[in-house]
Design goal:
single chain, 325 residues, mainly alpha, Rossmann fold, Tyrosyl-Transfer RNA Synthetase, three-stranded parallel sheet, two-stranded parallel sheet, 14 helices, 5 strands, 7% strand, binds tryptophan, binds iron/sulfur cluster
């Protein structure tokens, strides 16, 4: 029996290279060895986008198209939409009843987001409960493996705490969910900060070649390298770290050429842009094809949600029985 795995993304923007390297590549491989559930977390998106949710609807299908074009296979994995499986909300309510307020108020991601996100009012009831819904997402499938980034570890910790508390109060139903971290080094944005839509420093999976070229040329390099004749320090250069991720076979060559000032940054970036364009090309072809048939994409989500619902209903039945005996 394969272990069950769940992960999800909030449909709040176009997917970018950070998603590809940090999550999707990993998900595609995991499909072979786990029973996978991949979820579009539209309720979680609404928690921050509630003032204007119209874009969220577009991102749902757009993100699914990206997932599939990167190799997520709806025949191998269950690809579904959170809000189409209502049982998530039932379990969320059960969990809300047993989750002490202090656990949520102390959650570091919550405090950080309230501090950092200034263009939205996140001091809402739902936003405080964000990790409770996330726990329900995971545990309604009794998933024991959850591939996520480092930033999500506090939510996984809370998921385990809620699971333990439920099992202790009622009946041993839920597993301990473990985070599965990616081994690939983190890909930084064009400005060497974290790659994020809100920093406007992403290369999107849907960016056309001309856009990729322009963006790569704007990347920050070794700040000490001003003239072509200055030897560079590839270890501090963000462009170089992209080579490590997307063309590891060229890494040494670039190291040497840069260190000896045999290659200029413009040329180095041109070559990187070509590599990225070539990587993105097959993904974009598939993506365009998929987006031509939006009804087909909707169907994939509906089928997946039906499949997910079967598992979710079975868990919820057990939960009701355990709580309401
Ligand atoms: N909070 C996750 C993120 O922002 C998205 C998410 C929602 C999720 N529910 C989940 C991830 C369940 C893993 C499991 O990335
Ligand atoms: Fe970075 Fe390449 Fe310039 Fe060296 S040559 S500093 S690796 S962009």
């Amino acid at each position: 029996m394969k272990k069950r795995l769940l992960s999800g993304m909030r449909p709040t923007g176009n997917l970018h290279l950070g998603h590809l390297v940090g999550a999707l590549k990993n998900w595609v491989e995991l499909q072979e060895n786990y029973e996978c559930f991949f979820m579009i977390a539209d309720w979680h998106a609404l928690m921050s986008e509630y003032e204007d949710a119209s874009k969220t609807q577009e991102y749902i299908l757009d993100n699914v198209a990206d997932w599939l074009s990167c190799g997520i296979d709806p025949n191998k994995s269950t690809v579904f939409l959170q809000s189409q499986v209502q049982e998530h909300l039932d379990l969320y309510m059960f969990f809300s009843c047993i989750t002490p307020l202090g656990w949520l108020e102390r959650c570091p991601t919550y405090k950080e987001q309230l501090r950092e996100i200034k263009n939205r009012d996140l001091s809402t009831f739902a936003f405080l409960g964000y990790p409770v819904l996330q726990a329900a997402d995971i545990l309604i499938y009794k998933a024991s493996v959850v591939p996520v980034g480092l930033d999500q570890l506090p939510h996984l910790e809370l998921t385990r705490e809620i699971s333990r508390r439920f099992n202790h109060l009622y009946k041993n139903i839920f597993p301990e969910a473990e985070a599965l971290l990616t081994k690939t080094p983190k890909l930084l944005g064009l400005d060497a900060r974290k790659m994020s839509k809100s920093y406007n420093n992403t290369i999107n999976l849907s960016d056309e070649p001309a856009v990729v070229k322009k963006k790569v040329q704007s990347m920050i390099t070794d700040p000490k390298r001003i003239h072509l004749s200055d030897p560079g320090h590839p270890e501090v250069c963000n462009v170089h770290s992209y080579y490590s991720v997307f063309a590891p076979q060229l890494k040494e060559e670039i190291d040497e050429a840069c260190g000896k000032a045999q290659i200029g940054c413009t040329q180095c970036k041109q070559q990187l842009a070509d590599i990225l364009i070539e990587k993105l090309n097959p993904i974009q072809d598939k993506r365009q094809e998929l987006l031509k048939h939006k009804n087909k994409l909707k169907e994939i989500l509906e089928d997946g949600s039906q499949r997910a619902k079967k598992v979710a209903c079975a868990t919820l039945k057990e939960v009701r029985k355990a709580v309401f005996v």
